[in-house]
From TrEMBL, chain A:
Transmembrane spans: 16-38, 86-104, 116-133, 271-291
Parts forming coiled coils: none
Organism listed in the record: Paenibacillus darwinianus
Name recorded for this polypeptide: Lactose ABC transporter permease
InterPro entries the UniProt entry points to: MetI-like, MetI-like_sf, UgpAE/MalFG_permease
Lineage: Bacteria, Bacillati, Bacillota, Bacilli, Bacillales
Length: 300, 289
């Protein structure tokens, strides 16, 4: 087959090789993701029930969707919340991670160590430690929201502060601020890494040339680093938005999860997931169209 | 491999001393914030049981002990399946899953970024859409599918689905787009086949991105423990084993649990440090543009 491919005209050949390269992934995707995705779409029109002989469903038409939009007291409120939350947390995460990436790109003693440390939260966040921290026997009663980490809302830092003799109200303010900052470091590890990879891909020539012309670091940042980083910026914006929307602590995600696994309403849960997906997709589409024009591509 | 040997551009510090101090202070603060949970975990794992149960809990440890670690190994050695088997399982799943995902995703990303063929845009929109979907919802249909394929309770159930994962593909496509067409065209004129240009030009030039995906995927898989997909004791991964140990008696084994979480964190950290250095090294010889 490959030898026949060789004799084709170049443009045709390129197309065929394109297909050939995409094929293994597409097979995996269709089998393990697209299939289940379509099944869940089908579920969203059914009333699924767990019976002794497995999952059984009866067709419900648009009922699940209608219920979610017009009658469910929780869904719309949670969805609005997560959109509002996204509006302030995404810019914060992006600015913060860009800042950190620029800092960590500089050569200094212990850079490797600092990079490793700044990535620690990602390693921990997906690990067992989080569960152990959260399921800690004593923290159960002390913990406020599920989103903040035991260490700060619980007793870890509080203990130190109380020992230092600081009043409870001040500690509360302090805790809130710290929990916010902490949340930020917690959720921007991946973005920092992406920005770093992007920063390293910027050719050193540009900096050299501009330095010869007399540009200062500040100007270099705005006129070289930032424009050259726009493709990664787009990537990061999309990633961060998706990540914020599908974060496990997100209200809608929790609701979808609970509907499926605690209430065993797979049909309704699928309908919620698809509605939510539609919302995110519309939002991302609009945003993408908006910033696509501002992307700098060296090739053009 | 194109190695346009290039020195790093010298942006030598024209910053003032105070500026340096401010930056340094910030870096240290950031480091503290990021390292605190890890430090906390290590300290917790060193606490003897009475300090673990102390109320209100303290951040510091008064009488550090390694008893938790020895407890953990004692508990682990009493298990049915040797601990080594669990570690082997986790490593196998993490390495194979990462390999499949990275190779197939980057292969697919290359034509999506650089070739024009019919259906390209549709495939890419589907990828972005798949990223937005909540994994919990596809989980049940996926389980049904795996059980129909007779793959439940095998390594394949843990590894194969990653072939079609979309995050790596999405990241790789954005990075490959940045490789100038000129390099690829030059390679073609010199007689490189598509496979050659992919492995000799696209890979080396996007190595930082590839290693980034490797890091994500490895960490993800290292912590991956879908209890529903495997139930044979000999196929379970390290994390499930540790969770079982702790779940046996959550209060008395709290210390062992803390020790387990520290042990579990170490391999991803090592992988990260090793690869991160590699990312920096490759930057100096495989210069894009």
């Amino acid at each position: 087959m490959i030898s026949r491919l060789r004799s084709l005209p170049y443009t045709k050949k390129k197309q065929w090789y394109g297909f050939l390269f995409v094929l293994p992934w597409v097979i995996g995707f269709i089998l393990f993701f697209a299939g289940p995705l379509i099944t869940s779409f089908k579920y969203s029109f059914y009333n699924m029930e767990l019976t002794p002989d497995g999952l059984k469903g009866s067709f419900a038409g648009w009922e699940n969707f209608r219920y979610a939009i017009f009658r469910d007291p929780q869904f719309i409120r949670e969805a609005v919340n997560s959109f509002v939350n996204m509006f302030y947390s995404v810019p914060l995460i992006l600015i913060y991670s860009l800042f950190v990436a620029v800092l960590l790109k500089n050569k200094f003693r212990g850079r490797g160590l600092m990079r490793a440390i700044s990535f620690l939260p990602v390693i921990i966040a997906s690990g067992v430690l989080m569960q152990i921290l959260k399921e800690d026997v004593f923290s159960q009663g002390l913990r406020g929201g599920a989103e903040s980490v035991y260490l700060f809302s619980g007793a870890g830092i509080n203990g130190i502060l109380t020992e230092l003799g600081i009043g409870p109200q001040l500690i509360e303010v302090f805790n809130n601020v710290i929990a916010r900052i902490f949340d930020l470091t917690w959720r921007s590890g991946v973005q920092v890494l992406l920005f770093l990879a992007g920063l390293h891909a910027i050719s050193g020539d540009l900096y050299e040339a501009s330095a010869v012309e007399g540009a200062r670091a500040w100007e270099q940042f705005w006129k070289i680093t930032l424009p050259m980083l726009t493709p990664i910026m787009l990537l990061n914006v999309v990633y961060t938005i998706i990540d914020t929307f599908t974060d496990y602590g997100n209200g809608v995600i929790l609701m979808i999860y609970n509907t499926a696994f605690s209430q065993v309403r797979f049909g309704y849960s699928s309908a919620l997931a698809w509605l939510y997906l539609l919302g995110i997709a519309l939002f991302l589409g609009a945003l993408y169209a908006l910033i696509k024009k501002r992307i700098v591509n060296l090739q053009d | 491999m194109i190695s346009l040997t290039k020195k790093k551009a010298g942006i030598h510090s024209r910053r003032s001393m105070t500026g340096n101090i401010v930056v340094f202070g910030f870096v240290v603060l950031l480091g503290l914030f990021s390292a605190l949970p890890f430090i906390f975990a290590v300290i917790t794992s060193l606490k003897p049981i009475d300090e673990l149960l102390q109320f209100p809990p303290r951040f510091t440890v008064v009488r550090p002990t390694l008893a938790n670690y020895s407890d953990l190994f004692l508990l682990a050695s009493n298990m049915w399946v040797p601990l080594f088997r669990y570690i082997f399982n986790t490593t196998l799943v993490a390495v194979l899953g990462t390999l499949f995902h990275v190779v197939f995703a980057s292969m697919a990303a290359y034509p999506l970024a650089k070739h024009r063929f019919p259906g390209r845009n549709i495939i890419f929109s589907i990828i972005v859409m798949a990223l937005m979907f909540v994994p919990q919802v596809t989980f049940i249909p996926q389980f049904v599918l795996l059980s129909k394929l007779n793959l439940v309770d095998s390594y394949a159930a843990l590894v194969l689905p990653w072939i079609g994962a979309s995050l790596g593909l999405f990241l790789m496509k954005q990075f490959i787009e940045q490789i100038p067409d000129a390099i690829l065209e030059a390679a073609r004129i010199d007689g490189a086949s598509e496979f050659t240009s992919f492995f000799r030009i696209v890979w080396p030039n996007t190595l930082p991105a590839i290693l980034t995906v490797v890091i994500f995927q490895f960490i993800n898989l290292w912590n991956y423990s879908p209890k529903e997909l495997v139930y044979s004791e000999s196929l379970k991964v390290f994390r499930m084993a540790l969770e079982q140990i702790v779940a046996g008696d959550p209060i008395a084994r709290m210390g062992a649990g803390a020790a387990a979480s520290v042990i579990l964190m170490i391999p991803p950290i090592v992988v990260f440090i090793a690869l991160q250095r590699k990312v920096v090294e490759t930057m100096t010889f495989a210069g894009i543009k």
